[in-house]
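ok so i was messing around last nite and threw this chain in just to see what happens. nothing serious, just curious
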Amino acid sequence: MIIDQTSGMPVMWPESNVPTGMVPFSVAMGQKNPDYSCHVHFFENDDVIERFWNNPWRYLERLSRFAGVVATDYSTGPSMPDPVRRYNVYRNQLTGAWMQSLGIAALCNVRCPAFGHDYFLAGVPRHSLICVGEVGCVKNRYDRNRFEGGIVRAVQELEPTGIVVVGGDSYGVFDYARDCEIPLYFFRGKAAQAHARVAHV
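result:
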């Protein structure tokens, strides 16, 4: 595993395979006969993610059967103390890099502020397919502006080959990515599995 020398963040490798379906971690681990052609995502409450963090080997064998995984999504909101945000960014990057090191296709989960706090994007692959979680991030105007600013920054600095979105296409928050001709792949709804609505520009 490679560590970014400036920030200490684990480095994730680029991924290019677009998911055909998404399933939350809690559902994927609980279903008797899940659809293993899906990717597993961690856009859930932190206490759910903690199960994986505390004992990742317990879930690894089953996770490895799926087509891929999205790195964890520990909270990194601006109301949190910066050392806690940094630690959660570290954990998100570490889980993704660790799974990649074991041969699992893992998409990088990208969250970042519009400016500053450069550690948010340290170790994130450039010119790669990336993933973002939109659910619960755009209803409030302040959160929406913050989310959209992060998308603009991610597009400018990462130049992604595509963005996988777990959530909807609301309030024009992805318009900048469209204007930059970045392919967008949406997985909507609260169902255990949601198939992509592909939005090419």
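not much to say yet. The first strand starts at residue 21 and ends at 24.
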